[in-house]
Amino acid sequence: ARLACAPACIIESQQAIEMHDKEDVVHQQTPDAPRKRRRVAPPIAAAAAAAVTTALMAAHSRDQEVEAFRSEQDLVKAMEHLRQADPALAPLIDAHGPPLKLLAQPGASCFMALAKSIVFQQLNGKAAGTIFGRVMALCGTPAQAEPGAPAQPAQLAAGPAGVAAGAAPDLTSPCQVSTQAAQSHAQGSGAGMPGDPAAAAGGDAAPALVLTPEAVLGAEFSALRGCGLSENKARYLVGLARAFSPAHSPQPLTDEVLRRAADEQLVTCLTALHGVGAWTAHMTAMFNLGRPNILPTGDLAVKRGMQALYGLPQEPSPAAMAQLADRWRPYRSLGSWYMWRVMESAASAPKQVKTKKAKAKI
Questions:
Q1: Which pTM was predicted?
Q2: How confident is the model over 139-151, as pLDDT tens digits?
């Protein structure tokens, strides 16, 4: 009731979500048990997508600016706030400085960021990167092309070392990926710390590619499945494209609408889309839209970072995380980023080898 978009998008979409799995769960089979059919969630209805957009536009007028990290000076200001509000963060701030990855990306595509997140769900980085590279080979459109221009799969997938065989890198700017960058990451994992996309390493030799709703909707469903996507993920991708497509939704989602939504409304309405959970919405808000006050309570690394930093006996609950991070307001995104650094430091620290004490001879 507190959210302006709840009556419009949640009531309609939640009924469909309750009837279908949001994740592609593989059921374990036993020799004697009958084979269980996997429930497949349909794409979100165009009417529901339109309701999301209408609610967001009604909640925030187009001329209203939403708070975001837009410059390094904004990050420095936030760092000083955290240093004063929570002295425990001071060593981390001194060691790691301002994270430029949290800056808002005006030219980035929310659609591509969400699409990539769907592909990467429940997979290790290398496998997910390979699949995403194949999706880009199938649907990727040169950045300089006009919106809606058809993809050029024959050119993009040419050669055994093309994008189809390579792992796409994690993108600081999720709106584009170059074929050269995809090839250079073919042997890499393509995964950084949870929720912390690694910077893309691309050159100017190959044209940048973008993923558009029109290109996804123009691809055969069987071709999407052939990229390595599960049936659910392929449907999620098509549903996401429909929600962003003017040809399939009366009022499609747009980057502009999402950038002007308040944090709670943004997360609530994004999670009404099939295949988009709270973690994906939080990561999009932080790394794509530059929102400064996001607390990803479902992120395991943030939980464990808090546990280690504050000496907690167990991982904090979402309520406990919110209480601990209350002192970080209005810069909880930055505080969360430093929690990832806590876990990164712990992972790189040399492990102590326990040696058995020699038994005394009698």
A1: 0.70
A2: 999 886 444 444 4
